[in-house]
Amino acid sequence: MRRCLSWVLACCVLVCGSHATSEDFFLTIGGGYSPSGNQASLENNVLFAQRALGEQGVLGEHNDIYFSDGDAVGKDLQVMDPSSVPKANRLMAEFFGSRNDLGLSYRNHKIPNVKGSTEPENIRNWFRDVGKTMQSGDRLYVYVTAHGNRSNDRQAPYDTTIATWNNSSIRMKEFVGMLDGLPEGVEVIAIMVQCHAGGFARFIFEEGDPDKGISKQRRAGFFATVHDRPASGCTPEVDEKSYVEYSTYFWAALSGRNRSGRLIERPDYDGNGVVSFDEAHAYTVITADTIDLPVLSSGEFLSVHSYFDEDNPDLLRNDESYELILDLATPSQRATLEALSDELNLSGDERINDAWKTTQSDRARNSTRRRRRAAPEDGLRRRITRDLERKWPELANVLNPVAVELLTSRQDEFIEAVENHPDYPRFRELTEATETDEAKTKVKYERFVRIADNVALAENLRRLGNEKLVAQYEAIVAAERGTLKPIKSIQEQRL
Asked: What does the pLDDT look like over 166-189, one tens digit per residue?
């Protein structure tokens, strides 16, 4: 074991030392597959990432962005701004129609200095033209904020895709092939937030296949969700305050500011004065109120090479005491377990098993469906609608001339009638409040269990005694604990 740890430490020293003269390359792949699938949030994700990275002073000359249709002239971006619609129209839609697509329009994207569209050939060319200029010790950051799809091969469920322009796509295994063409000694850090992004967590293996062993290239990745689930975040809404998706929190953690520019408390869980990638991931797991079940590349490695075995007394079980798991956890894992315990009101030494039981509860899901059908705001909406129709029977058809007058020359009269209805304040309160979504609550229990399992699986990997696998795992963990600015550079700045 000493030889194994010494190898990992030596690897870290060599990598950190090489960063003193190495360069960072940033490759962004963003946008949708067509105008109707290219939402404003994808554009804003790219702009936020560029701002966050720029404020950290890490963006240099190697910063290439591929987004939707590139620099083509045309309306390629779907945007929705309900506030641009007159208030009377919004209220009429709310009670006599539908708010769906209210304020929807299209425009050309506004991302500056885009290198091209996301069509696969452009990405392949980047690796052939720019990638080949990289040198040993350089780091490549790949940020993907796009759509993604399941694998269409049942025999290869992890071969998920990035949806690219013109209804094309890049499969995980093809992406791995592009990475394989980079010069030896290049390190890759991936941040991917598309649906089914977790399939790309297997890029740490040769050809994306665990049976072929770990890649010779040093790789670490952070993924919004697992390979068989959609991810949160794609919306045409222009109001960034409403965005809740993985990279919103990841970039905020690294930069110290959220999308609104407000300072956040830096998640420096190990207290070394800098936020690492794995700490940014932990902050996201704790903070993001989404349906996502985030994945780390090290966790994917453990899912392949470690296991639980109740018949082996030397291995930890998946229902160990919380105290033991907390003692074995890294600072980031410990912070996550403690924060989620508080949020979910988990307590006691059996809380890991309690959380697991909650994730298995069909009763909770069924009761949620019943609550959704009987949402109190629906009853209030019907009551307000009925009373408005009593006042203006013509509203039974919104194309009636009286209804048209209420949207134009008499709009103040209509707005006053709605807003002065005794049930309207409560209706507004219920509809504007953050929805209590059982799926979002359930996934936080799943996140808690996943972190606890990874702690136990890491310990089991060590107890299994395969020094080669332990060394590979520790090398991935070391890469995940990297920072935007190498530790050596940070220390030099302090001097």
From this structure: 999 999 999 999 999 999 999 999
Domains of the chain: 2-306+465-487 (3.40.50.1460)
- What pLDDT score was predicted for residue 44? 96
User: In this structure, what DSSP letter does residue 273 have?
Assistant: S
CB atoms within 10 A of CB 93: 18
Q: How far apart are CA 27 and CA 294, in angstroms?
A: 21
Residues in the chain: 495
What global pTM score does this model have? Answer: 0.84
Rounded Cα distance, 321 and 311, in Å: 18
Backbone angles phi, psi at 166, to 5 degrees: 65, 35
DSSP assignment of 86-110: -HHHHHHHHHHS--TTTTEEEE---
For residue 172, CA distances in Å to 140, 150, 192, 208, 371 come to: 17, 11, 12, 7, 39
Interatomic CA distance for residues 465 and 119, integer angstroms? 45
Read off the pLDDT of residues 378-394 as tens digits, 9 standing for 90 and up. Answer: 889 899 999 999 999 99
Q: Average pLDDT of 393-406?
A: 91
pLDDT score recorded for residue 434: 47
Q: Please, which residues bridge with residue 27 across strands?
A: 64, 142
- Which tokens belong to 352? 């890991």
Closest by CA to 35, choosing from 71, 72, 70, 76, is: 76
Count of C-beta atoms within a 10 Å radius of residue 181: 11
**DSSP label at residue 377:** H
Q: At what angle do helices 40-55 and 246-255 cross, to 10 degrees?
A: 10
